Amino acid sequence: MNQTQTHRPDLMAVLEDQGYRVTAPRQTIVRLLERKQEGFTAEEIIAELPDVGRATVYRTIKLLLRAGVVCKLANMDGAPMYSLSRAEHHHHTVCVACGSVGEFRAATVERLLRGLADDIPGQILGHRIEFYITCDTCLPAAAS
Amino acid sequence: MNQTQTHRPDLMAVLEDQGYRVTAPRQTIVRLLERKQEGFTAEEIIAELPDVGRATVYRTIKLLLRAGVVCKLANMDGAPMYSLSRAEHHHHTVCVACGSVGEFRAATVERLLRGLADDIPGQILGHRIEFYITCDTCLPAAAS
DNA sequence: GCACGTAATGATACTGCATATCAATGCCGC
DNA sequence: GCGGCATTGATATGCAGTATCATTACGTGC
User: Fold this and answer.
1) Residue A119 and residue B126: Cβ atoms within 8 Å?
2) Residues A45, A28 contacting (CB under 8 angstroms)
3) 3-class secondary structure, A72
4) pLDDT, tens only, B70-124
5) Residue B123 contacts A where some CB pair is shorter than 8 Å
6) Comparing C-alpha atoms, which of B113, B84, B29, B40 is closest to residue A108?
7) Distance, CA of B43 to C1' of C8, in Å
8) What pLDDT digit, counting tens, does each position of A28-75 carry?
9) Is A122 helix (H, G, I), strand (E, B) or coil?
10) Do B128 and A72 touch (CB under 8 A)?
11) Which pTM was predicted?
């Protein structure tokens, strides 16, 4: 539950472990992502890397998604965004002001999920839980 | 927590209350929506109502969204869908097999939200909670 | 060190979902 | 009946993402 703790994985190594080649475009993308503190959109990455084709950007993001080191989420409007993930199973907080994405894995959530199994008819396959916040850093500015 | 209980609002009356005109296209759309048992997509509505322009369908859905009688949600793949809403504040279960949307408002969820306020840095503005399930009706078929 | 096969790339086109534009129409009050 | 605003729908556009496909790069076996 510490938002500032950043265990940043070596994304390229992750891809390599999965048997993918280390190529120049992939390294370019991955290096950019590793520097991102906030959530990001695919189009943003594409714009920042004019020398890499859009297909490659989307492909690489998809590889990272499958590898579990990147998460796809949505901002409050439902627009898609991505964020690096550090923990295994977690949920997200998205600051509507600065776009920073936090992860939390409160024990209460997991307890809730177990309790809810009785409340929900049928078999639970998956869930989506996201919180939209004004983060501590943005709160002072928002108050003005 | 009763999925089959359907208090179906008169959608046209809702729009009228907000000061919008009762027009033929809007009535056509609204009548179709009122018959929907499952979640639906905008394109589905557009396809079923060839005489109504797509802009009008999207516009009407947006009016209903703002009025709070329709909810926008996402299926497990993240594809957007809509559903009529009956209760005030609730969350959704989406059956991945038949697309039926259930609402639940388990007390545990609200308790969770209050407890989480301490865990999450900053001020919570909103959240998104969706469960993807195989509903009781589809379970037998899924087992085969 | 070369040839072959597969992985990867990127230009382009396309799909799905949704909004913007805008001229035409319709309804309402006066 | 007229002036004005709400509404409509055809069309264009935008955004997110995938499909296609010819070309290039890589790595492995020989």
Assistant:
1) no
2) no
3) strand
4) 999 998 888 999 999 887 778 899 999 888 998 887 676 777 777 777 778 888 8
5) yes
6) B113
7) 35
8) 999 999 998 889 999 999 999 999 999 999 999 999 999 999 999 999
9) coil
10) no
11) 0.85
